[in-house]
């Protein structure tokens, strides 16, 4: 752990290096195989962020109930419980956060084989600073219900806007990063989220967190760059990564170094919550199975009962790797 902290401290002094020009990035942390969960904290409480209908289990409970496991392929699996849930109770799920915070100057790469999806399901892969929203949040993967494409976003205090003239393949939404929705970018690739993602065998998300800006890439399984496929203790460059899906440059509209602090990396699966249960989003995608055509429909139609509708509500992750600029 002390070695990791020292390497990340070195990275802070290299913040001025643009990601595209850095010669080499060294691996400072890897989460993979049987040790995947070793350096994660399990939240172990109710959902205090999206107010979802879940109980996030602590590590012991998650392991004993087999909601956090490593499968025969050596991949980490995080899932929603499929047992019976009585009315007015919540369903068990997973939220894990890295023990370590990563400073500006970090690149995260995660290979995901399967992501959760379905009515009421709200999965996310994201990062957050110690104090929210003062130290910012980066949403790398997020969606709800039967969405077909990924929604990325930044969340900050005031005085951070997403520039309208950026080089990216995604489609920008609101540009004010301090609103409830943040400054969103939608990936138009139907393999970037949900059922389409899983049918394509998953893919890789890479996030650059630098003083020059925040960039997010996604590649479906058959399009993963060779530099990532062969990466190990270091990555030489990102010349074959192409244009990012989301490009949030640092500048007069948003100073990344002032809006973001060191970030912890998170995987979680919520159910319903403020976004997925909202009738404006839930009804067009999932309809009404019950008689209550309001915010209770998401819970009543999905969370209670035997839980067989959550068979696809799981993450399967090959690895998470964090890199810092070499010096």
Provide a brief overview of the structure.
With 327 residues, the protein is of the alpha+beta class. Helix content is 16%, strand content 32%.
Structural features, described:
With 327 residues, the chain is of the alpha+beta class. Helices cover 16% and strands 32% of the residues. A hairpin with a 5-residue loop joins strand 4 and strand 5 (76-79). The longest helix is centred in the N-terminal third of the chain and has 11 residues, at 2-12. The radius of gyration is 19 Å and the shape is globular. The two termini are 19 Å apart. The model is unreliable at 1-23 (pLDDT under 50). Keywords: Signal.
List the helices and strands and how they pair.
Elements: H1 2-12, E1 25-32, E2 40-42, E3 54-56, H2 59-64, E4 68-70, E5 76-79, E6 91-93, E7 95-98, E8 106-114, E9 121-128, E10 137-142, E11 151-155, E12 171-172, E13 183-186, H3 194-199, E14 203-210, E15 213-220, H4 226-229, E16 234-235, E17 246-249, H5 256-259, E18 264-271, H6 273-276, H7 279-286, H8 296-303, E19 314-325
Parallel strand pairs: 3-6
Antiparallel strand pairs: 1-16, 1-19, 2-7, 4-5, 5-19, 7-18, 8-14, 8-19, 9-10, 9-18, 10-11, 11-13, 12-13, 14-15, 15-17
GO molecular function: hydrolase activity, hydrolyzing O-glycosyl compounds
Protein name: Concanavalin A-like lectin/glucanase domain-containing protein
Keywords: Signal
